[in-house]
Specification:
The protein has 460 residues and is α/β, with parallel strands linked by helices. It contains 13 helices and 22 strands. The relative contact order is 0.12.
Length: 460
């Protein structure tokens, strides 16, 4: 039996694990990570964010080519297979793995490959011959698609968000059960491939955590593209057949399509950790409850990333990992963990930060709204990407920026301008910054000036 001792041991090498391990190593702690798969990077790199966004880009590039008048006039017909569209993701994943492997090597952080399970609060067994002792242990094992009993995921026409990337044929139609972030993103992707899409939402609205105006814009664009959205529906049975899948709904409806994508919830990867040995009990979905410091009920054991649930963003997981390690190091708690921007890769993109109109109204905050419609921007007209808007919420009296919401091409990039200003101390975080700043012309960033002037004019 080989035994190894470290100051910090991290379980998982996704964004949360990487952020924790790098912060610990740079803080002078002897650090190790445990990874159950043969390559590092976690679900984010191998079957989540990176491959799905690479597929989205391939689809988007194909759409742009098909919509280009020059290509159309040449009579070029582009009809790639799903496999061809996914081909680029393999090289991207390989580059990501190589780059991240170097991070661990450069910082002298050994990677133990195996399935970690707790022996006690300070000891992990990686395999029958290897045990690792850690003064502090950080769980960053991520999550996976929730698979309810009674749904046959072994059937070749039933998929979840991990297995859908292995789809080896182009269906004519798809039912997506679950209209969260993953469901909406895949609905956009498949519709852009001219596949008929039924999006089944168990709630009253799409993505209810977003600002209502953004929700309305997304719903409108999806329906305009041909996506059939059904709200307030729950399934009673899923019947896979040789020629398709029938989804039976409690409302009495039946929806038959070539394939079904289950996108309703996720489960934390905690069942193999033997957490009962250290007095930690995950919830019904395998998620862990943590304190603001990311400590679990076992004080020397922390948890970060998707395994603790919301917001389940790679960017947030990385910062949570850093924050947990900084707590171990006794460093000041000055990381910006509030108002994390979200990026949703529908068509077009959505990104937002700060408060929504609904939240400000409920809190009785006197706010005003500034809009910029992309169709009015020269850059959007030039590029032919005129669908979208930027929305700034600001305090009527102080002009402080309270929220920024963007719907349109490159929204996930555009949002960071608003984020940078919101995070400045008062009075540098007000609407006046956007009014008084000169933006390059023509650019999409100019939307901030247009929205700021629009909002300022509402005050008088």
């Amino acid at each position: 039996m080989q035994e190894h001792k470290f100051d910090v041991v991290v379980i998982g090498t996704g964004p949360g694990g990487e952020g924790a391990a790098m912060q610990a190593a740079k803080g002078g702690k002897k650090t190790a990570v445990v990874e159950c798969y043969k390559e590092i990077g976690g679900g984010c790199t191998h079957w989540g964010t990176i491959p799905s966004k690479a597929l989205r880009f391939s689809i988007y590039s194909m759409m742009e080519a098909m919509n280009n008048p020059i290509v159309r006039d040449m009579g070029v017909n582009i009809n790639p297979t799903i496999g061809q569209l996914r081909a680029s993701s393999k090289s991207i994943i390989a580059k990501q793995v190589t780059m991240r492997q170097r991070f661990y090597e450069r910082n002298n952080v050994p990677v133990f490959h195996g399935t970690a399970k707790f022996i006690d609060a300070h000891t992990l067994e990686v395999d029958p011959e290897t045990r690792i002792h850690g003064e502090n242990i950080i769980i960053a094992t991520g999550s996976r698609p929730f698979r309810p009993a009674g749904v046959d995921f072994s059937h070749p026409r039933v998929f979840d968000s991990d297995t859908i990337l292995d789809l080896d044929f182009k269906p004519q139609s798809i039912t997506i059960y679950g209209a969260g972030v993953i469901g909406c993103e895949y609905a956009s992707m498949f519709r852009n491939l001219a596949i008929k899409v039924n999006l089944i939402n168990t709630r009253a609205k799409l993505l209810e955590f977003l600002d209502d105006e953004i929700i309305d814009a997304l719903s409108y664009q999806m329906r305009e593209s041909g996506v059939i959205i059904r709200h307030n529906e729950t399934y009673s049975k899923i019947e896979p057949r040789d020629d398709g899948v029938i989804l039976y709904l409690d409302s009495g409806k039946q929806v038959k399509t070539d394939i079904l994508l289950w996108a309703n919830g996720r489960s934390g990867n905690t069942e193999k950790l033997d957490l009962a040995k250290i007095g930690i009990t995950p919830d019904s979905r395998g998620l862990l409850k943590v304190a603001p410091s990311f400590q679990t009920s076992c004080p020397n054991v922390y948890a970060v990333g998707d395994v603790i649930g919301f917001p389940s963003l790679a960017s947030a997981a990385y910062m949570q990992g850093r924050a947990a390690t900084r707590h171990i190091l006794g460093a000041p708690d000055d990381l910006q963990l509030t108002d994390i921007p979200n990026g949703i890769y529908t068509s077009p993109e959505i990104s937002s930060i700060g408060k929504t109109e609904r939240e400000l109204t409920e809190a009785k905050v006197p706010y005003e709204v500034g809009h910029s419609q992309f169709r009015s921007l020269a850059r959007a007209q030039i590029t032919g990407r005129a669908i979208g808007m930027l929305k700034i919420l600001f305090h009527r009296e102080t002009l402080e920026i309270l929220g920024v919401h963007c719907f349109g091409p490159n929204a996930a990039e555009i949002i960071h301008i608003g984020q940078a200003i919101m995070k400045q101390p008062y009075p540098n975080n007000t609407l006046e910054y956007f009014i008084d700043t000169t933006f390059n012309y023509p650019t999409m960033a100019e939307a901030y000036r247009v929205a700021a002037l629009n909002g300022y004019n509402r005050l008088f």
